[in-house]
Known about the structure:
The chain contains 12 helices and 12 strands. It is an alpha/beta fold. Strand 1 (25-31), helix 2 (38-46) and strand 2 (53-59) form a beta-alpha-beta unit. The radius of gyration is 19 Å and the shape is globular.
Amino acid sequence: MKGMKGVKYHTFIPFTPFTFLFMLVSIIIPNWNGAHFLPACLDSLRRQTHREHEVIVADNASSDDSSELLARDYPEVKVVALDHNTGFTGACNAGLIAANGEIKILLNNDTEVEPNWIEEVVAAFDRHPKAGIVASKMLLFDRRDTFHTAGDLYRVDGIPVNRGVWQKDENQFQEGLVFSACGGAAAYRVEMLDQIGLLDPDFFFSCEDIDLAWRAQLAGWQAVYAPKAVVYHKLSATGGGKTASFHDGRNFIYVMIKNVPTSVWRRHWKKMLRAQVGITVEALRAWRGEAARARLQGQLAGIIALPKLLSKRKKIQVSRIVSDEYLFSILSEE
């Protein structure tokens, strides 16, 4: 990714050693029928070297024994019980609202974190006072030398990318600026959330993290990858198939219409259109598969939502304080 130029940044007072050690961090875990995943995740949080943290499970009206498990085995966990399934975004937002930390971290229930994970996230914020987002090193749960993501990128053709996905971890990605953090382990500075808002509930599932990152980037915040903050993820354990295909198909369009500035559209509209046509053609070729049909339905839903998205777009673009030069520097060509 190119150097970051042409941007006006917010000015902060850096953390002092005292605040670094005793800063309250909130971990928000969205959960829907994930009782079989929760113990590994919650046990790893009990082992954290950064002791000043709270754990919040936002439960999407689970029908399994999640509530009983939490009450019996994890009394220290604060549970936000929702009366229906509000999706990933709804559960995360409920947890974010209930959280009290100066740093708020979204964490998937199908993860396990290293003991120094919170400590390294806080340290990354300390080193980068202009960062509103910190991305963890996410490795596969069952192949712990293989990346899920080393921070997320956004391509000029409108496709979000997990940087390093499927690559063997050879420390090839150093600490530095990225576009976004994967929502499976995304840390946010509370001052940023207070300014730009929480996740957009209309996304429900998929690309909500990219949408938030676009709003953050346009408002002058940075996203930083912290390679020593390590998370192991059971990829697609609680999502996938036709559900993921529908929301990917729809939400790729949501992000492009809602967030991508006019200057980027002018330069790269052919690439964005070509990418969407490519997705359509690929889905048509695999028409007999449920996932392919769901992807097409998602694209149609994205097009139908254009009036609503354009209304949101006006508010977001008005808040932009960064230059075109900066915007082009944060986008990936590959």
